[in-house]
Specification:
Layout: H1 2-37, E1 44-49, H2 62-77, E2 81-86, E3 98-102, H3 109-118, E4 122-124, E5 137-139, E6 142-144, E7 151-159, E8 170-175, H4 178-199, E9 204-211, H5 213-216, E10 221-226, H6 228-232, H7 238-249
Parallel strand pairs: 1-2, 1-3, 3-8
Antiparallel strand pairs: 4-5, 5-6, 7-8, 7-9, 9-10
Helix pairs in contact: 2-4
Protein name: Secreted protein
Transmembrane segments: 6-25
Keywords: Membrane, Transmembrane, Transmembrane helix
């Protein structure tokens, strides 16, 4: 009888210790995730999306809706809250609340402002006319053209303004097509732990390539390069470059 009681007690202690250990590990993992996303308990965040300039209603593409769902799940896992805001209705700075900005600069003014302020080494061709450079990225001295449905690029960035420790990050999902925005959010959802281990709470900018989206959708994504340094280094001013060229010609 004594051995049975001792066995039950030992089993109970082992179960309790196991529960405590699992709870500790779960909480530590949650805190790391919250720190990476800048989302402590009950924090507010912004989901910035496109809106048709011709009307007052949100007109989000199907793939951008899927991207928002991916992000909403991450925010909920952090025990935080999200507010969906149209790109042209967001009139505030950054750093006060975590922001997730979805869409290219051709349809998202907020993205255009973020690229100019935070990633001056990135240019996106927003010319609506068909051509080989439509939607192309220039990052530093490299140019990345898309082949719709075959090979497309998206920029995934986590950025903070200034050196304030309490500043909340801005996450950018700047793709050449809407399906690439979803691919970037899915990549972040799958790899945020690895990214947190590598970068901590520092800024980064990654160039991703979406492979054969016409067959595989947003699921097959390759990391092309860490372009943080090139993206944060301002490109030469086009006007100044043109002026210098004309001076040389004369």
């Amino acid at each position: 009888m004594r051995n049975i009681v001792l066995g039950v007690v030992a089993a109970g202690i082992s179960a309790a210790l196991g529960w405590v250990a699992r709870t500790y590990l779960w909480k530590r993992r949650l805190r790391r995730k919250q720190a990476f996303f800048g989302l402590p308990d009950n924090a507010e965040s912004l989901l910035v999306v496109n809106r048709d300039a011709g009307g007052p209603d949100l007109t989000v593409t199907r793939f951008d809706v899927f991207a928002l769902l991916e992000l909403a799940a991450l925010i909920k896992d952090c025990r935080a809250h999200a507010q969906v805001v149209a790109h042209d209705a967001t009139q505030q700075g950054f750093g006060e609340r975590t922001e997730f900005c979805v869409g290219g600069p051709a349809s998202n003014r907020r993205m255009l402002a973020h690229l100019a302020s935070l990633l001056p080494g990135v240019r996106v061709n927003v010319d609506p006319e068909p051509g080989p450079d439509r939607g192309a990225f220039q990052i530093g001295g490299e140019r990345y053209r898309m082949e719709p449905g075959v090979s497309e690029y998206v920029l995934l960035a986590r950025l903070t303004a200034g050196e304030r420790r309490e500043a909340r990050p801005v996450f950018l999902f700047c793709g050449q097509r809407a399906i690439t925005n979803q691919a970037a959010t899915r990549y972040l959802a799958r790899h945020h732990e690895r990214l947190a281990r590598k970068y901590g709470n520092s800024s980064f900018a990654l160039l991703l390539r979406v492979v054969n989206s016409q067959a595989y959708g947003p699921d097959v994504v390759e990391l092309v390069a860490d372009v943080t340094q090139a993206a944060r280094t301002a490109l030469p001013d086009r006007t100044a470059a043109t002026t210098r060229a004309s001076h040389r010609a004369s």
